[in-house]
Structure prediction request, 807 residues.
Amino acid sequence: MNQFKSPLIAILLVAAVITLALGEFMDSGVIAAVLALNAAIGYPQERRAEASVRALIKLVAPHARVLRDGREVDIDGADVVPGDVALLQSGDRIPADLRLIHTIELRVDESLLTGESTVVSKSLDVLAADTALADRRNLAFTGSSVASGRARGLAVATGAATQIGHIAAVVRDAGPRLSPLEVRMRRFAQQIGAVVAIACVATFALGIGLGRPAPEMFFVAVALAVAAIPEGLPVVLTVALAVGVRRMAKRNAILRRLNAVETLGSTSLIGSDKTGTLTENRMTVLELWSASGTHAFTSDFDVAAIARDAREVPGEAASPQDLAALACVLANEAELVRTGGTLELLGDPTETALLVAAARLGIDPERARVVYPSLREIPFESERRYAASVRDFAGKPRLFAKGAPERILEMCDRRAGHSGSASAALDRDAALDRDAALDRDAVLAQAERMAGRGLRVLALAHGDDSGGDPRGLELLGLVGMLDPPRQGVADAIRACQAAGIRVVMITGDHAVTAWAIARELHIAQPGDAGVMTGAELEQIDDAELARKLHTTSVFARVTAGHKLRVVEAAKAIGHVVAVTGDGVNDAPALEHADIGVAMGRSGTDVAREASDMVLADDNFVSIHAAVEEGRVTFDNVRKVTFFLVSTGVSTLIVIPLSLVFGLPLPLLPAQLLWLNLATNGLQDVALAFEPKERGVLDRPPRPRNEPIVSRLLRERAALAGAVMAACVLWLFIDALETGRGEVYARNVALTGLVTAMAFHVGSSRSEHRSALSLSPFSNRFLILSQVAAITLHAGALNFGPTQVCCG
Prediction:
């Protein structure tokens, strides 16, 4: 159980054993109660977070259709062996790494493995051995899914030998990693241990030197050890982290490990996947270029409402823009399926994007296909580089085609004339003249300009059907599409950068697309060296990569191994690294990063299991919100630690001074435990609910080696502890002089310290601001805890059973 792995818990266990050996059963019993309480609070929190993640995971056991003994059989995917011939069709998950031996228009979604947002057209081409993973068109990989088409493939690797298996091995071999908070707490515990050892030895020696009996001094040393250990810190640390977990959950971030809360607050570099995290993971047409002009689309729209204002289906005399939109519908195999009041898109992402664009221009796809029924289809093939549909167009066969601009232009000898209402400015933008023949160079230049902005460009054309290869077509225009950035992501990235957090894009997508998105989202900064590809990564060593990280913000066309190298290089130069991802290829980086952030909706099971945090909405904006909550959580942990350390300092001063002055022990171990757990325990828990301070995201990230208690707070703790120690010692001496005995004097001393800590907790609410500048009502729980601490102590002084430990 993780609750018993804290170094402070180890110190408490030692203290419990010592007090038990000394027969101080009250002390050992109280310490045991602390350990039980810490586990009772922490364990359910981690279980609840884990349950939230597992609720997102739907385990689907894939099946496979293979040829065995000349017959087609359906078997479990786990039973596929090398040499099996697998049969694939649209919608299938690929059960093994396959060498394709026969394909019919096969297109595969490999995003979970490569991070590429578009489907991949497969072929039987022979490729070079060093071809990048994302470009191996003659292979189909385990876990990918068939978007369209059919194929047969020979299983060449299964299980651990597949590409996904190699990635799983890297994840499995990853050693345990400590969060920055765990590192800080270990260092803090070591410092506490050193202070306890030195103080106990010095006090024991001082007492012996002053002539005190050795058994008495051993008991004093135990009291000093109890005083120095902040027993309540493990409990309140768990509470503070649990509060952060709940706050993050409200902001769509589900934590699987409590310590991951603070890690986000320490993050100095975020390595973000592109598809689905920074972008919508939905191809969208952003621009339609025709002789009518350039029509720009916004990236936000309501799918269910896109065809409500449909006009009449365009005819022969329609504008070039309307004819281009009609081509988007007719040369298209995707569908808009209405179920009740909802509208669902079915088909290839590129084709659904074209269908939506046409609907947004007022064309009802269903009605258009009824008005112009299909006569013949020419499906897309990678060798052909276009797709076409022959339609009954007012009684005549009319071919509508879409494809690569270079290929479509080879089929065209003219262009569609612009509408008479188009302005001169739009005419110039179209680079076409009403009376001129088709200017191929101008069209290709426009296509290059669109591609330069990261858009995927297709050309549209129509013309009479000759029955053979299309010729003599009329160019209708160009469409540019992109997986657009999510709303709010650009602002979130700027906010992260303002907080001193560097955002780096690490994606399997193409360099041009990645750079375009990076510029739009301001990930690419002035002075950046540009995009580094996976092929370029392989040409440099780790030291050179670490140097280039200072000027490179975009890594594209990378594999799982490349992404892991970037993460390790960033950690090597001192960054606290958060990594986002959704695919199997992201799992090694998620596992090795300081905090792995997986996608809850689109993420794979492997990615979620390798992560520390899951985004319920797959949105980078939620990471920014979680970073803020992480910083608030650390601030509150630091405030609590300062508050408890102040108590330890005061008692560390009081006990040795009482020896020097020849006084009895002012506070017994049981009283110190009562102070740390019962009275201070209410107030330090209340500090865990302290709201965020202004400017929490305006500060730079904390360095990895920054201690849990800053130098300023150490100085304040020493000063506050000295003042409280002086007051307690004065109260103890004054009470002794009344002649009412040591028990009464210890009650007075303890009550004085309880009261002092009730006031001191107010000054612990901020590291840099005065308690007088903070509203007392911003944390009402703290006010209640102060009143409760005094009331509890007063009641304990007058209740028989608790008088044993309180006085």
Notes: The longest helix spans residues 620-660. The CA atoms of residues 90 and 148 lie 5 Å apart. The first strand starts at residue 63 and ends at 68. The chain has 27 helices and 25 strands.
